[in-house]
Amino acid sequence: MTSPLAESAPSSREPAWADYAVLVVDDEAGVRNFLQRALQARGCRVDIAGSAEEGAERLVEHHFDAIVLDIALPGRSGMDWLRSLKNGGFAGDVILITAFADIETAIDALRAGASDFVLKPFRVDQIVNSLQRCFERARLDRENFVLQRQVAGLGGQVEGLVGHSGPMCRLSDLIRRVAPTPSTVLILGESGVGKEVAARALHEVSPRAERSFVPLNCATVSAELMESELFGHVRGAFTGAREARRGLFHYANGGTLFLDEIGELPLPLQTKLLRALEERRIRPVGSEAEVPVDVRVIAATNRDLRAEVAAGRFRQDLFYRLEVVTLAIPPLRERREDIAELALHFNAQLSARLGLPPLAFTPADLARLSAYAWPGNVRELRNLVERSLILGGLPAAGEAPGFAEPLPLSLAEVEKRHILAVLDQCGGNHARAAALLGVSRKTIDRKAAEWGLA
């Protein structure tokens, strides 16, 4: 005769149980121990409690993705604790179990926020199937969150690495070598060189490719909200926190978190990020419980972080923790042989996306593109191709700020003229100019101050 445990042996289609933690709360020791053995056999981390009060203590000490909760408990009832959990912002699933129930009890349980309702006596596969549905729902929620950010433009439209120059071939080789490891990676390069493209390429050839890639530009989130954005918060953690919210570490669990412009991260958050990297655990704002996470972090910056460390603006220990492996992406002016290939790539891609006929580049056009210094790098080239598709051709000399400037100008002067032209076009609005140039508002403010315009 086959045991219930053997009948419900894990299959390859089920979730990775080792990624989840379950709390079983029941006053019957036999039920507690039976479920603990059954779920641990699947690789799940399981803790047990004999009452709601004991369960609440476990919840303070540890993170749980789901709770299997008996309604009839000594002291506080399971139904009462369920309502308290949901009102308090518990984001996990709660499966209620009971030996005494009617249709009204079941309806009350679902209204209170229960994910499922199972009658005793039950077979282990009933609990297993219920938990599977909960875990699958959580996985879909994570994927949906990431997709929504991409559709909203927060993650950006990303192309693969393009170019066959020596620097790009070396970069591709290094990405393939680094990708299989779990090591933290620091990507260095000027604004617009394609740091997120490289980060995504690394993710796509890593063992984490089937999980989420979650990008965050650290310059776009205020210092007050950054901790909640990364680690999440519980209900009532601060003014305005009416509901619990999961952070980006949660949505990147099992995958990759890309932190662009890491140099903009406030010093207090640098300490908490370092702790998350070293201990692989996070603490949501306002919570006493730590949550285990399995996230690979890729950071990027266009700043000299060693100089930032020397100036006291960046933690030395975090810098060394991030600099396990460094990828340096060269500016476009140092790989001019890639410019024509990139222009043709963007021409084909953007013409299809915009529903416009592709540009008919002549050899002279490509030579002209290759001769320009491209202070905005690949992003500037892409924007020029898109604008040219909309207008029906490349701008003539003098029509596009910067693009028609002669090469004898220094790179700094070309950058200054280009930024000033865009600022003039935007009526001096730094935020609009930053959006058009694809840089942070802080960069424009800093440049304006250098030129005496602040």
UniProtKB/TrEMBL annotation:
Domain of life, per lineage: Bacteria
GO molecular function: ATP binding; sequence-specific DNA binding
Sequence ranges assigned to domain Response regulatory in this UniProt record: 21-135
GO BP field: phosphorelay signal transduction system; regulation of DNA-templated transcription
CDD domains the UniProt entry points to: AAA (cd00009), REC (cd00156)
Keyword terms, alphabetized: ATP-binding, DNA-binding, Nucleotide-binding, Phosphoprotein, Transcription, Transcription regulation
Residues modified to 4-aspartylphosphate: 70
SUPFAM superfamilies registered for this protein in UniProt: CheY-like, Homeodomain-like, P-loop containing nucleoside triphosphate hydrolases
Database matches in Pfam families: AAA_lid_14, HTH_8, Response_reg, Sigma54_activat
Domain Sigma-54 factor interaction: 161-390
Family matches, as PANTHER family: TRANSCRIPTIONAL REGULATORY PROTEIN, TUNGSTATE-RESPONSIVE TWO COMPONENT SIGMA54-DEPENDENT SIGNAL TRANSDUCTION SYSTEM RESPONSE REGULATOR FIS FAMILY
Protein name: Sigma-54-dependent Fis family transcriptional regulator
Originating organism: Zoogloea ramigera
